[in-house]
Amino acid sequence: MAADVTDAVEDGFERYRAALFDLLRQPSVSTTGEGMDVAPALVCDTLSEFGFEGVTQVETSRYPVVYAEHVVDEAAPTLLFYGHYDVQPSGDDAEWESPPFEPTVRDGSIYARGAGDNKGQFSAHVFAVHALREADAYPDVNVKLLLDGGEESGSAGFREYLSDEPAEITDADLVYVADGPMFGSATDAAGGSGARSQRPLIAYGNKGILSFQLDLRTARTDLHSGNFGGPVPNAATELVALLSSMREGDEITVEGFHDGIDVTDSDRRTVENIPVDEDAIRAELELSHLASDRPYYERLLLHPTLTINGLSSGYQGDGMKTVLPSRATAKLDCRLVPNQDPDEVFEAVRAHVTARHPDVEITKQGTFPPLKTPLEAPAAEPVEEALAAVWGQSPVVFPVLGGSLPAAYFREVPELADVPVVVVPYANPDQGNHSPNEHLDLDCFRNGIETSAEAIRRFAEI
């Protein structure tokens, strides 16, 4: 990292932190709408304050997308940063040690909803551009910034924006996403220190997701288990049997579920190089066993999943109530690997359900498609180099993230059909995104700014 840029980040850091705190104080909960009437304007003001031009609040039928740019030369390479300014609901405020929308520093970390997911991470790009310009070290690279207002609730507005094939982003040479946690090792925590070691991480894509719900009604009301049990069907029993039919051990048995999957030898070699201590993971999570005999990261990253997120049926109160449940509900998600189509997977699941129990109603809740960039993409090399330079160690490379992001929708813009997309998390592994006491370490915030700056600087050389 160039000393002059490091000095500029240091000189501006208190200002950067204050600007982030302003963003964090403003609720922007897309699932409920809390604060979404004023949050986009605050984001736009922040981008303008730190030197971005062409700052635009693009209205959609859902929430606005915010676009900004710093263009130095139309012929220069273009780096497109994607992030989101909306956040998850805070949940039960009593579970927070400090109010979720009053950013507080404790033990070297910023505690607030959105600190890591994603305001602290997308703002690192903004402050990186400012620091480079303050150091008079800005290279011949065009930077464009696109901020989603509904990533936590399906990205409907973002998809609508892309469907119009926006000309302002079609020259992107690389889409850069800073979201999620860095690589964390459980070894230290299992050894008794209570801390997780961390390393920078770059992922060349992400798993997709399909969420759906199953509902079964067998009678007009719950019934007495002694008077009706046996001849009258039990909704809970029948739904559990249906769920059991979808897998055998660690294998998903839904016909057509795996269609299209193509795992490359390069992906397999990359996964084999990810450091892992399975004993430490079991100890940290207090597990009696792991659910698969396959190596941990092979199972996590290279294979799809079908997960029961929740089950509800019958009596759930204290003590006993001897009823025969008349209704049962299951919520599930599938994490999908590259080349799986969420809609086609849903149809395969629907066919499985209908063939085995036509009375079960299946409802699609939402999807994100999977995304994959070739590991050899030249445009990503400056990013790996920047991570190593700033963090002092080479990044762990994931072929895809286990989580899901809407970044694959960039590929639906014809001019961006082959654009490389990389995910580069800046948040500490224990950030607690979506949970009470979400937090971003100040060191990660500072290093995130320096990483974005160094990536921009090195991107000029491709």
Structural features, described:
With about 450 residues, the chain is of the alpha+beta class. The protein has 2 domains: about 5-205 and about 370-460, Zn peptidases (Aminopeptidase, 3-Layer(aba) Sandwich), CATH 3.40.630.10; about 210-260 and about 305-370, 2-Layer Sandwich (Alpha-Beta Plaits). It contains 13 helices and 23 strands. The protein has a 6-stranded mixed β-sheet with strand order 1-2-6-3-7-22. The protein has a 4-stranded antiparallel β-sheet with strand order 16-18-12-19, covered by helices on one side. Strand 4 (about 105) and strand 5 (about 110) form a beta hairpin. Helix 1 crosses helix 3 (about 115-135) and helix 8 (about 265-270) crosses helix 10. The chain is globular and about 80 Å long.
Averaged pLDDT: 95
CATH superfamily of the largest domain: Zn peptidases
Shape: globular
Gyration radius, rounded:
24 Å
The number of helices is: 13
In the CATH classification, which architecture of the largest domain applies? 3-Layer(aba) Sandwich
The unreliable regions are: 188-194
Detail the topology: elements first, then pairings.
Layout: H1 3-25, H2 39-49, E1 53-58, E2 65-70, E3 78-84, E4 104-106, E5 109-111, H3 115-134, E6 142-148, H4 156-163, E7 174-177, E8 183-185, H5 187-190, E9 197-199, E10 201-203, E11 205-206, E12 208-217, E13 223-224, H6 225-228, H7 235-244, E14 247-248, E15 251-252, H8 265-272, H9 278-285, H10 296-302, E16 307-313, E17 323-324, E18 327-336, H11 342-356, E19 361-368, E20 371-372, H12 381-391, E21 396-398, E22 421-423, E23 439-441, H13 442-459
Parallel strand pairs: 3-6, 3-7, 7-22, 10-21
Antiparallel strand pairs: 1-2, 2-6, 4-5, 5-23, 8-9, 11-20, 12-18, 12-19, 13-17, 14-15, 16-18
